Structures are given as structure tokens and as C-alpha cells.
TrEMBL record:
It comes from the Bacteria. Its cofactor is Mg(2+). It is found in: Cytoplasm. Residues 25-171 form the GAF domain. The keyword Transmembrane does not apply. SUPFAM superfamilies: Enzyme I of the PEP:sugar phosphotransferase system HPr-binding (sub)domain, GAF domain-like, Phosphoenolpyruvate/pyruvate domain, Phosphohistidine domain. It catalyses: L-histidyl-[protein] + phosphoenolpyruvate = N(pros)-phospho-L-histidyl-[protein] + pyruvate. This is phosphoenolpyruvate--protein phosphotransferase. Its EC number is 2.7.3.9.
Length: 747
């Protein structure tokens, strides 16, 4: 690149910095900037378009177009050449704008006189802010140098916008991150919460996008890159014995950290007058824009790696980081792209709510949020770009909706909702000790699902009559290495201590499918939900299962012990697992450990096949628990993790209820204890219908016990069963409408 061009660029940036330093109003500054750019680029026109809302761009300043069109000319995202630049995040450079694809003639601007057009997106880390355009009369394509120079300017404009340099009158000049915004995501954990944003990884703020001394900036960049490389090498060394996937990620990091192309681009940015951090951010913004376009999963991941690396580099350069020294605000609501279960546990119950841009209903973070009963919304796209630390925020976990900086009317309605929930909670506390007996005298046993130490206090506070499902894998998932047997013994005995004699059903490790242990060799399976998971792993590689069984027996230390095997698809699997228990008991006896006072061994019914097992199986199994989450996914062939189909089939679908009825009948014939421990057990309407079908033990999240009990106390199960039977005879698809109408009539 010619030195002359670089120094031109630096001169222009120097003048932009002067513009930034004045105490002019936003509009005057924008006017001055368009003038400066047109002058420096030698074009007749320079215009700046900014977003007035997510869908509309507004001409906010121009040199060369008719002044009266400022704040009058608007276009929708994707409309015209400017809209195209904004939508695609890509440069449009054409010598003949009127013939270019998507051109829209806007008579009020007088732009028909200008033939060539160069439009550059103004964006900051994936956040679209507007479009910078230069136009000129002569029909020519702008050179690569000119495009590059304008990209550097666009980057500085984005930083200036972020710092509030263009704030003025009108929506398009309203300060960034101050408008209220609503995000629609998915429900991770129900409940409503109001509080203030706490960004798990705060945005890095660049206060000096322009620098005078490129040599000094290059030095800073090189020093930071060196620190980054050393850091990545250290991580690589530490994980040489770790899993393959983690190593691959780190190798990719190292590749980027040593990438010549990346370095060269940043060096060029600096030569043009950007500071080291602005250069990093410019490349990061462009990589993010590319990420939006890329379909290929592998490439997307690599771009995400680069994004992560850029964040690290920015933190090194600016000294800003996770530990900013800021205190958690009052009523913190955590906002993050994603978060691991370990980090979330560290925050613990101090959080009032959680909003994730990624995440999924079955993710480990969601599991922890549920255990802590913290409202969680997942898939709230772009929230980390919009939210600032301390912003007022309301999280509606029931609907999967988040209100950021909400309007007064939303605040009032939302607070009403929270108050109603608080009233309901108070009602549930008042029936905590009341047994769940229906109006027609049926006693339903309400127990809770658990898996973390954080769950234990709920045993008292929820009124649960025991633990119907202790998901032992959660303890394995929240660690970064395999727990030792002695640790498990300590853990399980704490659980039994906390249960104070109430029955605890320990489910052996249910890993595989969506639950992948970070320290186990990943297996590449075409369809993990139907793959090598749960008891299949336990039987094929019995080492961990044996250790777990030993730990359970030692933790029981003479107390009663209940063990349940997950995902049993045929009787033989149960028998093989049972034989492992017998062997372990024998070994423990020989070793002189105290044996459990009583031992119940059961299986989870999660695949339809088990419901059709030979009668002998029903006679021999200690008890059965329907894992409705998995059972439903296999019954309807609808992936429980797939947002598209997850809710497609209703639990109150007549075919499913008939299937449940068959299981209940088979268990009644053989006198087999039966419970239900999927998520549906915690949904009041579904729960009472399951009870009406004959299931008398329901295991659910602790927070659901109050609502489920409250409805059971007001329900006549025989009458409800009648409603369900009538619906089935009529041949409806789901009995939900009839059941809801019946409850409505009951008041
Ligand atoms: C289920 O499948 O219903 C169940 C309780 O197990 P998990 O959700 O842990 O797979
Ligand atoms: Mg399951």
C-alpha cells in the first residue's frame, strides 16, 4: 500500500478525532464529518445513514445530496443499495448505481446525478448501526485502497456512535442502548424476575479508536499478541492429556494467533491511523459479519474461535476483563452468550434471573438454573449486544420473553404478574405440610427431582415427600474431571442426611445424548439420542458404574438404599445391571462395609419397548419410573431438544394417554410400584391427568410441588378420568380442550 494513501488516511482520522473532541451537538458533528470525508476522498457526496429502528434506516447527514432530504429520506432494511449494504453487512461498490441490482430512485435527494456509489456498513461487533456512503458523478469503481480507507473510517464512526458522539434529536440520533427492547427466546426455567443487567463478559469499551503514533500502536499490538500466544501455548500444554476436541479448539486458537493474514490486516489498520484495539475490533466486526453469512458448521466454529481470541486480545490491550472490579448490581440478572454450569454455580442463588443468547433447554446451564429455581430465558438473540451493565431488565421465564429498559406500561403489567406469583407462592407455603389428597380421596405422593447440592434445601421448603429422581450425572457434568469414589461417598451421604429418612431414588449415571462429560472421550454418533447412552454405557464400560454403586452402598452406611437404572430398553439390561449390584454388595460385604438395611432396585421406563416387556420383567423389577421426557420423544419420534418439534405433540394426546394407561394396568396386575418423573409431572394440568390415569407418585422440580398439589386438592380424579374417557371415545386428538373447559367450569 502506498505510503501517501496511508498518510491521507491518518490525516482524515486525525481530523475525525478533532471533530470528536469538539463539544458540538451530534448533528453538527455528523455534518462536519460528512464534509471531511467527501473532501478527503475527493467525492461530491458523502452521506451517513443510521438506523432509526431495527428495520428502518434514515439519512442523518449528507454532503452533496439535497440538505432538505436529511431526516426525511428513509429506507427499509434491504431496500435500495443502502438497505442492501445494511442487510448484508457487505460493501457495495459500483460505477453505475442506477443500473445496480436493488437501486431505488429517491427524487428528494437529487442523487440521480451521481453515478458511482460506494456503501460501507457501519457495524460494531455484529451490531448494525448504519451505512456510510460516498458517491461521485464520474462513473468509476472505487479502488481497493479507497474501499479500505472508508472501512477504517466506518469503524471509527461505529466507535464514536457507541461513545454517544452523535446523540441528537430524533429516533435515529437517539443514544444507543437506551431504547427499550423486547427479546423473544425460549423458556429454560419458568418464573418472573425484575432486576439489573449483569454482563457475564462485559463489552470492552474503546475510548481511543484513533492513534497518532502507528509505531507505538504496532508495538502494543505485538506485545499483546505475544502475551496471547504464550497464554494459548500454556493452555495447550496443560491440556495435552485432555480430550481431543478441546485440543482441536486450542490448536485452532494457536493457528489464528500465528496467522499472518490476521496480523497483516491489523497492521494495515494501524498504519491507517487506528489504535491497536480498534484494529482488533475492526477485524473482529468483519469476522462476525462473515459468521452471519456462513452456513458451514465447521467454518462457523472457526470464526467463533477467532471471535473468542479477539476478545482475549482486546482484554489484554484494554486491561478490561471479567474482573472489572464492579460489584454485582442489586437484583442481578445475568446476561451472557452462554455460560458453563460451573460458572453458574459460582454465582449461585445471588442471581435473580438468567438470559442467554445461545443455550438450550437441556443444556447444563439450564439444568443448574432449574436446580436453583432461577428464571431462565434461552435463545434471546442479540441481547449481549444490546444490554449494558446495570440496565433495567425484566425476565418472563414462562413466556420466554425479556424486556430490556422496559416502558412504564410494561413495568406495571410485569410487576402485577410478579405480585400474583408471590401471592400464589404464599398460598403454596400454607399447604406445604398438607398431604395431596384429591376431592374424591385419592392420595398422590409428590416427590422431587434433584441432582445438585443446591437442591437439598428444597427438600424442606417445598414439602416434597422424598426424592423421586436424583440425577447423579449432574455432579459429573459440573466438574472438569471424574469425581473420585471418596468424593461420591461424601456427596451421597450428604444427600441421605438431608433427606432425614425420606426415600431418595438415586439414578445411576445417565450420560450420552445431550449429556456429554467434558473429560470423557467424545464419541461421534450419527444420532446421539438413540446412541450409546445411559445404561448402555454403564454395561459396556462397567468401571464407573461399579464405582458409583460402591459409593452409594458406602454412603447408605446401613440406611435403606434405592437405586434406579436409566434408559432400560429390554429386561436383559435390567438383569445385567441388577447382577452388578449383587456383585458389588457381595464385594462390599467381604470388605467389611456396612450393607444397606434394605435395597430397592428399579428401572426407568423411557423407551416404548419396555412397556411391552414380558410379564416376568414386571414381576421381578423392584419399581418402575416413567421418564416422560424421553418416553414422549420416542413415542412421537420428536426430538426433545429440537425447538421445532419439541412442543408439537401434546402430552394429553389420546394415543399417549392410552399408552400410559396400558403401563399403569400392567403395573397394577403385577403389583409393580410406578411413578412418573418427566417434566410433565410438574405441570399442573398434565400432572392431574396423569394422576387420573392412575399414576400415584409424581416426581418434579421442587418449585412445581405447590402448584401441582394446589390443583390436586381441588380435583375429583374420578370425574376427570370420565372427561378423559369421553374425549377418547369421541376420537379427539388431545383431551386438553375438554379438560381445560372442565376445570374452568369447576372455577
Ligand atoms: C426423562 O427422560 O423423563 C427423565 C426424567 O430423564 P432425563 O430428563 O434426565 O433424561
Ligand atoms: Mg431420560
Amino acid at each position: 500500500m502506498a505510503d501517501g494513501t496511508e498518510s491521507e488516511s491518518r490525516k482524515l482520522l486525525g481530523r475525525l478525532r478533532e471533530a470528536m473532541a469538539t463539544d458540538e451537538a451530534g448533528q453538527a458533528r455528523l455534518d462536519r464529518i460528512t464534509h471531511l470525508i467527501a473532501d478527503s476522498m475527493g467525492t461530491e457526496v458523502c452521506s451517513i445513514y443510521l438506523f432509526r429502528d431495527a428495520e428502518t434506516l434514515e439519512l442523518c447527514a449528507t454532503e452533496g445530496l439535497k440538505p432538505e432530504s436529511v431526516h426525511q429520506t428513509r429506507m427499509r432494511l434491504g431496500e435500495g443499495l443502502v438497505g442492501r449494504v445494511a442487510k448484508s453487512g457487505k460493501v457495495v461498490n459500483t460505477p453505475d448505481a442506477p443500473s445496480a441490482k436493488g437501486f431505488r430512485y429517491m427524487p428528494e435527494t437529487g442523487e440521480e446525478r451521481f453515478s458511482s456509489f460506494l456503501g460501507i456498513p457501519v457495524q460494531r461487533l455484529g451490531e448494525k448501526l448504519g451505512v456510510l456512503v460516498v458517491q461521485s458523478r464520474v462513473a468509476r469503481e472505487f479502488s481497493a485502497d479507497e474501499v479500505y480507507a472508508l472501512e477504517v473510517v466506518a469503524m471509527v464512526l461505529a466507535e464514536m456512535a457507541e461513545l454517544g458522539a452523535f446523540v441528537g434529536e430524533g429516533a435515529a440520533l437517539s443514544p444507543l442502548h437506551q431504547k427499550s427492547a423486547m427479546f423473544r427466546g425460549g423458556t429454560g426455567q419458568e418464573g418472573a424476575a425484575e432486576g439489573h443487567v449483569w454482563l457475564h463478559e462485559p463489552r470492552v469499551v474503546i475510548t481511543n479508536p484513533i492513534a497518532d503514533d502507528p509505531h507505538r500502536e504496532l508495538e502494543r499490538l505485538n506485545e499483546a499478541i505475544e502475551e496471547l500466544r504464550v497464554g494459548v501455548d500454556r493452555m495447550l500444554e496443560m491440556s495435552q492429556h485432555g480430550d481431543k476436541e478441546q485440543l482441536q479448539v486450542l490448536e485452532a486458537y494457536r493457528m489464528f494467533a500465528n496467522s499472518k493474514g490476521w496480523m497483516r490486516r491489523m497492521e494495515e489498520d494501524i498504519a491507517r491511523g487506528l489504535s491497536a484495539e480498534a484494529a482488533v475490533e475492526k477485524e473482529q466486526s468483519q469476522a462476525r459479519a462473515r459468521m452471519e453469512q456462513v452456513q458451514d458448521a465447521y467454518l462457523r466454529e472457526r470464526l467463533a474461535d477467532l471471535d473468542d481470541l479477539s476478545n482475549r486480545l482486546l482484554r489484554i490491550l484494554t486491561g478490561q476483563g471479567k474482573q472489572t472490579g464492579a460489584d454485582l448490581p442489586a437484583d442481578p440478572i445475568l446476561v451472557a452468550r452462554n455460560i458453563g454450569p460451573g460458572d453458574l454455580l459460582e454465582y449461585g442463588r445471588s442471581l435473580k434471573g438468567i438470559v442467554l443468547e445461545e443455550g438450550s433447554v437441556g443444556s447444563h446451564a439450564a439444568i443448574v438454573a432449574r436446580a436453583l429455581a432461577i428464571p431462565l430465558v434461552v435463545h434471546a438473540e442479540r441481547i449481549t449486544t444490546e444490554a449494558l451493565n446495570g440496565d433495567h431488565i425484566m425476565v418472563d421465564g414462562d413466556q420466554g420473553i425479556v424486556h430490556l429498559r422496559p416502558e412504564d406500561s410494561v413495568v406495571t403489567a410485569f410487576r402485577d404478574k410478579i405480585a400474583m406469583q408471590a401471592d400464589a407462592q404464599a398460598r403454596y407455603v400454607s399447604i406445604r405440610e398438607t398431604p395431596a389428597v384429591t376431592l374424591d380421596g385419592h392420595r398422590v405422593n409428590l416427590v422431587m427431582n434433584a441432582g445438585l447440592m443446591a437442591d437439598l434445601p428444597s427438600l424442606e421448603s417445598s414439602g416434597a415427600e422424598g426424592v423421586g429422581l436424583f440425577r447423579t450425572e449432574l455432579q459429573f457434568l459440573v466438574r472438569n474431571k471424574m469425581p473420585k469414589r471418596s468424593e461420591l461417598v461424601a456427596l451421597y451421604s450428604r444427600v441421605l442426611d438431608a433427606a432425614k429418612g425420606k426415600r431418595v431414588v438415586f439414578r445411576t449415571l445417565d450420560i450420552g445424548s445431550d449429556k456429554v462429560l467434558p473429560y470423557m472421550k467424545p464419541t461421534d454418533e450419527p444420532n446421539p439420542a438413540l446412541g450409546w447412552r445411559a445404561i448402555r454405557v454403564g454395561l459396556d464400560k462397567p468401571g464407573v458404574m461399579r464405582m458409583q454403586l460402591q459409593a452409594l452402598i458406602r454412603a447408605a452406611a446401613g440406611r435403606p438404599l434405592t437405586i434406579m437404572f436409566p434408559f432400560v430398553a429390554q429386561a436383559e439390561e435390567y438383569r445385567a445391571a441388577r447382577a452388578e449390584v449383587d456383585k458389588t454388595v457381595e464385594r462390599e460385604r467381604i470388605l467389611g462395609h456396612k450393607l444397606p438395611e434394605s435395597l430397592e432396585i428399579g428401572a426407568m421406563l423411557e423407551t416404548p419397548s419396555l412397556a411391552f416387556a414380558p410379564q416376568k420383567f414386571f414381576d421381578e423389577v423392584g419399581f418402575l419410573s416413567i421418564g416422560g421426557n424421553d418416553l414422549k420423544q420416542f413415542f412421537f419420534a420428536a426430538d426433545r431438544e429440537n425447538e421445532r418439534v419439541r412442543r408439537r405433540y401434546d402430552t394429553l394426546n389420546c394415543s399417549f394417554l392410552t399408552f400410559i394407561e396400558n403401563i399403569v394396568e400392567r403395573c397394577e396386575q403385577s403389583g409393580t410400584q410406578l411413578s412418573f418423573c418427566g417434566e410433565d409431572a410438574g405441570r399442573p394440568i398434565e400432572a392431574v391427568c396423569l394422576a387420573a390415569m392412575g399414576i400415584r407418585t409424581l416426581s418434579m422440580r421442587p418449585a412445581s410441588i405447590g402448584p401441582v398439589k394446589s390443583l390436586l386438592l381441588r380435583t375429583n380424579l374420578e370425574q376427570l378420568r370420565q372427561i378423559i374417557t369421553e374425549g377418547r371415545h369421541e376420537g379427539v386428538q388431545s383431551v386438553r380442550p375438554a379438560v381445560t373447559e372442565w376445570f374452568r367450569q369447576q372455577g
